[in-house]
Design goal:
Bound molecules: nicotinamide-adenine-dinucleotide
CATH class: Alpha Beta
Number of strands: 7
Distance between the termini: 41 Å
Helix content: 40-55%
Order of helices and strands: EHEHEHEHEHEHHE
Number of helices: 7
Radius of gyration: 18 Å
Shape: globular
Oligomer: single chain
CATH architecture: 3-Layer(aba) Sandwich
Structural class: alpha/beta
CATH topology: Rossmann fold
Mean pLDDT: 96
Low-confidence stretches: none
CATH superfamily: NAD(P)-binding Rossmann-like Domain
Strand order of the largest sheet: 3-2-1-4-5-6-7
């Protein structure tokens, strides 16, 4: 007799936004390696198709759909495509995001609106589109990718940290609503610290910049995270192993935030 809740995702279908590369792709690998099936949604068509093909080549069930998280119709189509491909939808990972590095004096309203539209409203649209399909599939889990910038800000996190804090609070409201309404859908946020993805570094050359070295030195574990370390946490929260976890913030940051 099994005495622990299972981390297996066998038979579970996931839709992950922004999963062509970076932390989203790592989440796709983690969900697949736990037995799940994955629909990769992204603006980057070639990279997204490539990631899906790599997953299939490793024996996993993975497909790509073009998704712009700013577009409600595209979200509806991505949810439909997932249900068509895998017979249901159990897991939504709202991972797509962009970062800007601008002070309050230099940020324009237009640029603030762009990042709000992707980081905050993109995740909101995703939840609205996916919840009916997750309910129809018997329940599941939503994981929203926030950031450790909800706690640690700098002069240039004006809009980015604001959107990520909003994602964390929106997550909690959705968690409470879905728990109280008996929907059997848990909702949690993941808060990565610095991870060496395209978003943060973009190129190997940037890894040697003094500010990047200082950032690394500030992390108690002395290194940036690897994308797979976020993916594993996403898969855990999506699984029954986290069956009593909802409305939580899980930091994946080598100890940076409590330091
Ligand atoms: N890398 C870090 O250090 C770090 C730290 C904290 C939080 N995060 C968060 O993790 C998430 C993933 O970031 P990453 O580091 O992998 O970055 P990344 O830039 O490598 O990946 C982001 C992905 O989102 C996609 N995307 C952007 N806008 C989109 C849109 N409108 N519609 C659909 N897809 C879109 C991109 O094409 C890309 O594939 C983001 O939400 C980011 O804010 C990253």
């Amino acid at each position: 007799m099994q005495r622990t809740n299972s981390p297996s995702l066998t038979g579970k279908a996931a839709l992950i936004s922004g999963a062509a590369r970076g932390l989203g792709a790592a989440s796709a690998w983690a969900i697949c390696e736990a037995g799940g099936q994955v629909m990769i949604g992204d603006l980057l068509v070639d990279r997204g198709e490539e990631t899906a093909a790599e997953l299939r080549a490793a024996g996993h069930a993975a497909q790509f759909v073009r998704l712009d998280v700013r577009d409600e119709a595209a979200w509806a189509a991505a949810v439909d495509a997932t249900v068509q491909a895998f017979g249901g939808l159990h897991i939504l990972v709202n991972n797509a995001g962009i970062a800007t590095a601008v002070t309050v004096e230099d940020l324009t309203v237009a640029d603030f609106q762009t990042i709000l539209d992707i980081n905050l409203l993109g995740a909101f649209r995703g939840m609205q589109a996916a919840i009916p399909a997750i309910k129809a599939s018997g329940g599941g889990a939503i994981v929203n990718i926030s950031s450790n910038s909800t706690r640690r800000v700098s002069a240039i996190t004006t809009s980015y940290a604001a959107t990520k804090a909003a994602v964390a609070n929106m997550t909690k409201s959705a968690a409470i609503h879905l728990a109280q309404s008996g929907a059997n859908i848990r909702v949690n946020s993941v808060h990565p610290g610095p991870h060496a993805t395209d978003m943060l570094l973009g190129s190997d050359a940037k890894a040697d910049l003094p500010e990047v070295q200082a950032l690394r030195a500030a992390i108690p574990m002395g290194r940036m995270g690897e994308a797979r370390e976020v993916g594993a946490v996403v898969a855990f929260l999506a699984s029954d192993a986290a069956s009593y976890v909802t409305g939580a913030e899980l930091f994946v940051d080598g100890g940076l935030t409590p330091h």
